Amino acid sequence: MNKKIPIILIILVLLFGVSFFVYSPVIFQEGNPWPQIKGIAQLNFSNTDIVKLLNSDNKYMTKSKNGQEIIKSFMKDMGYEFIEQMGSGYFFKSQTGEGVDATHKYYSRFYSLWNITKNIEQPQISVIEELQECLPKSDIVSHEKCNELLATIRNFDDCVNAGFSIMKSNPPQCATLDGVIFIDETNSTWLTD
Asked: What's this model's pTM, rounded to 2 decimal places?
């Protein structure tokens, strides 16, 4: 009986070692596996459907079964309505217009990881900045882009709103980078530099 215990222990250690080696890519796919192990324990032993992972501001874990519905419900509770899905990305929007993306990734076939990030509005590039970028280039794509941008400027107000300066003249005039001059014929009160 005493000889069987060490043999059983050796077999168990070997099985554990082989299993650990085979499944190590899954276990360590996110680096330190401790937050995921704790998340799996919380999902299985508590009454919760979604868990915020330890030491993370925007990573969550759900079970893979019905994970999409769980994240949609979670985001709805936070004030975001589901807009659309594109591949593994789920897009949500609040009533104030703030957008949130939730990207899905399988941790294993049983668990899903969700990365939830708020969309930060990029400052809009003015027409003049886009033109300054494409005008010096000689390729066809840049030339077509510049022509499209210049075609959107059809009058004095469009010229000023695009960021071009107003010339000190009577009546005021605005010139685009390609030399087209628009004259203010509305007697507006545009301030000249």
From this structure: 0.52
